Amino acid sequence: MLKRGGNIMLKPLNNHVVLEVVEVELTTASGIILSREAAKPSHSEGVILAVGEGRILDNGQRLPLDVMVGQRVIYNGFGGTKVNHQGKDLVIVSSEDILAIVE
């Protein structure tokens, strides 16, 4: 559950995760400036702000998620639902769309 000042902002359901989008660098290490289209990867990075309680299995048990709040992750850039909530660019994705944890 994502909270700010005691007020609940967004609570993802089941196996969904709320991510804050991390902007892609538009300048390479050598100083070359890329256009937004050239810099746009097929995946995106984000920081987890909230996680759901997990997927419900056929037997009724809940399978918890493998990720937690605060982790930086790479997710499928074509998946999820983009939202702007309280001035922040967020995306809500299924846990299956998370490809890796950045350590």
Quick summary of this structure?
The chain has 103 residues and is mainly beta. The chain has one helix at residues 36-39, and strands at residues 2-4, 7-10, 16-22, 43-51, 55-56, 62-63, 72-76, 81-85, 88-94, 98-102. It contains one helix and ten strands, in the order βββαβββββββ.
Largest sheet, spatial ordering of strands: 8-9-3-4-7-10
Number of extended strands: 10
Radius of gyration: 15 Å
Instruction: Please state the structural category.
Output: mainly beta
Unreliable residue stretches = none
Give, in order, the helices and strands: EEEHEEEEEEE
Most strands sheet: 6 strands, antiparallel
Helix content: under 10%
How would you describe the overall organization of this protein?
The protein has 103 residues and is mainly β. It is built from 1 helix and 10 strands, in the order βββαβββββββ. Strands 8-9-3-4-7-10 form a 6-stranded antiparallel beta sheet, with no helix packed on it. It is elongated, with a radius of gyration of 15 Å. The relative contact order is 0.27.
Chart the SSEs and their pairings.
Layout lengths: L1 E3 L2 E4 L5 E7 L13 H4 L3 E9 L3 E2 L5 E2 L8 E5 L4 E5 L2 E7 L3 E5 L1
Antiparallel strand pairs: 1-2, 3-4, 3-9, 4-7, 5-6, 7-10, 8-9
